[in-house]
Write a structure and sequence with these properties.
With about 150 residues, the chain is α+β, with helices and mostly antiparallel strands. It has two domains: about 70 residues, GMP Synthetase, Chain A, domain 3 (2-Layer Sandwich), CATH 3.30.300; about 70 residues, SH3 type barrels, CATH 2.30.30. A hairpin with a 3-residue loop joins β5 and β6. α1 packs across α2. The longest helix has 15 residues. The protein starts with a helix and ends with a strand. InterPro entries: Ribosome_maturation_RimP, RimP_N, RimP_N_sf.
């Protein structure tokens, strides 16, 4: 009952702010509520406060004692939602599938797949030396084991 109430409040808050979306929601046995959100334009502290208030101000601590943590998905956390890929187009990704690991620039994210591009040095087909070759991979979401944005300084 408590989880359903919290879920409904969370759903209402996210319906009001369509730029935000849910990454993780859980309630542990001691009523510790954890909400992780992300946004199409990133997440500000104000966005976390908005979601927190939408939940907290509509629950009665006299009925249920609880703690509430609302946070943004960390910059180094793996991507788990299709909308996260779309907001990271043109950024470097490290992507793992069952058979390979690819590091490249995310150039496209549709409803079914992502496209990564990268450059490699390969031996020339004829003669000595190497040439730079552009590579591209199209990977379906269901084939992605893990994907992380590579942060460059």
């Amino acid at each position: 009952m408590f989880k359903t109430t919290v879920q409904n409040l969370l759903d209402q808050a996210l319906a009001e702010r369509e730029d935000l979306f849910l990454i993780e929601f859980s309630i542990s046995g001691d009523n510790k509520i954890k909400v992780v959100i992300d946004g199409d334009n990133g997440v500000l502290v104000e966005d976390c406060i908005f979601v927190s208030r939408a939940i907290e101000h509509n629950l009665d601590r006299e009925v249920n004692d609880f703690s509430l943590d609302v946070m943004s998905a960390g910059a180094t956390a793996p991507l788990t939602h299709k909308r996260q890929y779309k907001k990271n187009i043109n950024r470097a990704l490290k992507l793992k599938t069952d058979s390979e690991q690819i590091e490249g620039t995310l150039t496209s994210a549709t409803d079914s797949k992502v496209v990564l591009e990268w450059k490699v040095r390969e031996p020339k087909p004829i003669g000595k030396g190497k040439i730079t070759v552009n590579k591209q991979a199209s990977i379906a979401y269901e084939d992605i084991v893990e994907a992380k944005v590579m942060i460059k300084f």
